[in-house]
Amino acid sequence: MTSATMDPMTQTLTEAAPAKINLYLHVTGKRPDGYHLLDSLVVFAGAGDTLRYEPGPEALHLVLAGRFGAALSDAAGPDNLVMKAATALEAVCGPEARIQGGRLVLEKDLPVASGIGGGSADAAAALRLLNRAWSAQVGHATLLNIAEKLGADVPVCLASQSARMEGIGEVLSAAPALPDCGMVLVNCGQAVSTPDVFRKRDGAFLPRAALPARWPDAATMVADLAELDNSLEAPACVVCPPVQTVVSAIAALPECLLSRMSGSGATCFGLFPSVWSAQAAAARLAQSQPGWWVWGGGLV
Could you cite one Gene Ontology molecular function of this protein (predicted)? Predict the structure, then answer.
């Protein structure tokens, strides 16, 4: 059988789940139901998890692997976001779908509870992967509806493309055209609870940011981003003091243009003029801080 005629139902398929980075994150308000309203520019890095589907006769189940798989060893059951995504997708599949069991193998290479959307990216990857593996042909609007119910970051992770994210995460619009740049990601190894961070906020809200249609170069982009903020960085530093240490360590790296925390933490990022300069900076920091998770590269 040639590759052109191979049946996808018998093949192992993979899907990337890239890390989600909030270049800025403003908490702009709060709904009556308690959910906070956000305004954020989201990009995706070359770092990420990988989800693999291996069809088989057994009931669909999740297997955890990778550097951080052990940290989730007790969370591979039906309450895992990947399995919730699979269940939700199966529920909307039409008669043309060829639903099959087997196993989903999650190569967990991103730190857990770290503010870069790892679990959300994994759930979004599961929707894309199983929609393809099952030949389900579920449309994007339906997938987006499922994503909204799974979590605030899942909708933007569904396309895994730069976007402006508003509302509680469900209002997506085009991001400014981004210039070439490099990025360093750093995590101190301490998981941070998002509810704990929100509880430590001082209650003040920030306005919706004014963004251009495009940035001509990294320096111009950074100048604009420096005028914005991450509303959750200060409270995250209270919950997890090493966050400030990481932000400062990144800022001190050669050629760093901007250093900030992503999401609700504890992962922080640095923007650099090029992929090469980011990789060199990451190598330098990883050598001096062997206990930290450090990655350097480009955006996807």
Answer: 4-(cytidine 5'-diphospho)-2-C-methyl-D-erythritol kinase activity
Binding residues for ATP: 111-121
How does residue 9 score in pLDDT terms, banded at 50, 70 and 90? low
The CA distance from 91 to 146, in Å, is: 10
> What is the topology classification, in CATH, of domain 3-172?
Ribosomal Protein S5; domain 2 (3.30.230)
5 band by pLDDT with thresholds 50, 70 and 90: very low
Judge contact between 157 and 120, C-beta under 8 A.
yes
CATH topology of domain 176-297: Alpha-Beta Plaits (3.30.70)
Domain coordinates in residue numbering, the chain: 3-172, 176-297
State how far the Cα of 62 lies from the Cα of 167, in Å rounded to an integer. Answer: 31
Structure confidence at residue 2 (pLDDT) = 32
pTM of this structure? 0.94
Tell me if the bond preceding 266 is cis, omega within 30° of 0. Answer: yes
- Residue 155 makes CB contacts below 8 A (sequence gap 6+) with 144, 147, 148, 165, 169, 170, 172
Radius of gyration over every alpha carbon of the chain, rounded to an integer in angstroms: 19
Catalytic residues: 20, 153
Q: What share of the chain is helix, strand, coil (3-state, %, to 5)?
A: 30, 25, 40
